[in-house]
Amino acid sequence: MELTYWYMFPAAVLIAATANGAGVGGATFFSPLFIVVLSLDPKVAIGTALITEVFGFSSGVVAHARARAIDWRTARTLVLAAVPAAVVGSLVAGLVDATVLKLVLGVGLTAVAIAFLRHRLAESEDLAIARGEGIVEPYTTRHIVTRDGHDFEYRVCRVRESRLFSGIGGLFVGLISTGLGEANSYVLIERCRIPSRVTVATSVVVVAATALAASVVHLVEFVNEGGDELSTIASIVVFTIPGVLIGAQLGPEVVRRLKEQTLIRGLGVLFLAVAGITIVEALA
User: Fold this and answer.
1) What SS3 state is found at 201?
2) pTM of the prediction?
3) For residue 49, which phi and psi values (nearest 5 degrees)?
4) Ramachandran assignment for 149, one of left (phi > 0), alpha (psi -120 to 50 degrees), beta (any other)
5) What DSSP letter does each residue of 10-76 carry, written as one string?
6) CA angle (241, 265, 33) in 5-degree steps
7) Is the dihedral of CA 157, 158, 164, 170 positive or negative?
């Protein structure tokens, strides 16, 4: 095990804080970092990124659960769609052209980013989210009171569409390590108008469970193949895992301090950056 990757520790803290504050998988940032900066083989980079992400988002789940901002029922619904798709994606990752997938994902994320940047939260809609106005069917609503006293009541909608997007996102996680958090955010925020703070917290749970499933498949493959790959992975995660465990605790605080519209715009900028990284990585 080498100590040459010490600088991955501060990088991991920053990435985990950003990822858990936005509900976007940390592997989205780690994978290109490992490929471009560390010159790792893409397959090794994706597996290492997913392993790191599991620890970061597990820590994030604890932090968001402590803040009482997670919609557990919605999370369970999305996990049941995303996890099987991620396992399938991990198993067939070597059979699919990653360049094409990254280009498709990059274009899709660009469209999602534009939708978020153009999002306008009307005053009446803002009040409905805050007060739960216009919600008349109890079985279609969720009511969450966070630890710091914020009261969110909102309508649950487009369940089949949410499962579909979560399944597609899970498939992309298994194939190229990213896409699930972005898919969840688009459906829950842009399509269903679920408060962004609840969406981010719920997405962290879904991404954590899905990354765990995908990383187990990749880890089994690494163990079976043997060689120097395991040593390289160990030399990296010995620094990234402590970093993401710390950084993930900062995510909920970031979300708590941002206004609804600011967070949605921020997600748009972040998704646009991720789309650019994905496309550049594919073309490179």
Assistant:
1) helix
2) 0.81
3) -65, -40
4) left
5) HHHHHHHHHHHHHT--THHHHHHHHHHTS---HHHHHHHHHHHHHHHHHHHHHHHHHTT---HHHHH
6) 30
7) negative
Count CB atoms within 10 A of the CB of residue 117: 15
Q: Tokens standing for 110?
A: 């660009």
Asked whether the beta carbons of 247 and 30 are under 8 A apart, the reply is no
The rounded distance, in Å, linking the Cα atoms of 199 and 23 is 8
Distance CA 46, CA 53 (A): 10
Distance CA 207, CA 204 (A): 5
Strand pairing category for 151-155 and 141-145:
antiparallel
* 284 residues of the chain, pLDDT tens digit each: 557 888 999 999 988 888 887 777 788 788 878 877 887 877 788 888 888 999 999 998 999 999 999 999 999 999 999 999 999 988 887 777 777 777 877 787 787 778 777 766 544 344 444 444 444 444 478 889 888 888 888 888 888 889 999 999 999 888 888 888 888 888 888 788 888 889 989 999 999 999 999 989 888 877 777 667 778 888 899 999 999 999 988 877 777 777 767 777 777 787 788 788 778 877 86
- 3-class DSSP assignment, residue 192: coil
- What are 28's two structure tokens? 């989205």
Contact in structure between 119 and 217 (CB atoms under 8 Å): no
According to DSSP, residue 177 is labeled: S
Q: Name the residue ranges covered by the structural domains of the chain.
A: 8-283
The rounded distance, in Å, linking the Cα atoms of 196 and 188 is: 8
Report yes or no: 277 and 32 within 8 Å, Cβ to Cβ. Answer: yes
Q: Which residue, among 141, 120, 192, has the nearest Cα to 163 in the 3D structure?
A: 192
